[in-house]
Amino acid sequence: MTQPNNLLQLAIAASINAGKAILDIYYKPDFVSELKNDNSPLTEADLAASKIINNYLVDTPYPIINEEIKNKDYAERKMWETCWIVDPLDGTKEFIKRNGEFTVNIALCNNGAPAIGVIYVPVSRELYYADVTSHSAYKTILDENHELNSEILNEDDRIFPSKPNNSLIRVVGSRSHMNDTTLDFINEVEKNYEKVEIVSKGSSLKFCLVAEGKADVYPRFAPTMEWDTAAGQAICKAAGLKVISRKTNEELEYNKENLLNPHFIVSI
What we know:
There is one protein chain. Helices cover 29% and strands 27% of the residues. It is of the alpha+beta class. The protein has 2 domains: 4-157, Fructose-1,6-Bisphosphatase, subunit A, domain 1 (Fructose-1,6-Bisphosphatase, Chain A, domain 1); 168-267, D-Maltodextrin-Binding Protein, domain 2 (3-Layer(aba) Sandwich). Helix 6 (205-211) runs parallel beside helix 7 (226-238). The protein is globular, with a radius of gyration of 18 Å. The two termini are 29 Å apart.
């Protein structure tokens, strides 16, 4: 595999430039939006970001799984030892609501496991990234021109999960997917803590909240696709967290025959 730091820098550049293109459309008075076959929304920003990211990644040795392109059949994909998994605009519903809680997600997966992850938040200019082999995750805030103020992998930018606290547990809840199963989980958790606090965020920012210690657990008992979770899982894993499938009780796997994820929990 090509040097991880070179690939990480490439993924960071791709995510930032995709984010800038998304903002150009986000701040327009109107933008084009339509529904895909699965009734999920698609905007011109999704397509613009997808094109930019593909232009960055296409010359690497690794194929791309991307939400906004027609992906290869599993008969071909199963031969891929390493591949990119990309969501050019995660949180399209949040984008349409104009609440700022949308991200660009880029991950590199090796043998079914995330090895590199980048999540960029265009509105707040927050950049989360990790190289899983280094067991270190980072967050930095770019300047108003979306430029990095320091070199990547700066020790001052490292993020860490919170330490266990018997009196309080902060549970991440989705703005769009708080269902009965999640509420049952929260009710069960309440038995073991003095206080349960619900922290709501959209898109892959839910992973970031746990990775940087602003929440303690993220139960996801609603559908997600591999491109929704790969980058977030890389960042969480590098920070010392686990993203465990409720189906297998093992870490989520990638480049599966079915790109739909099982339900999962993010925690220490």
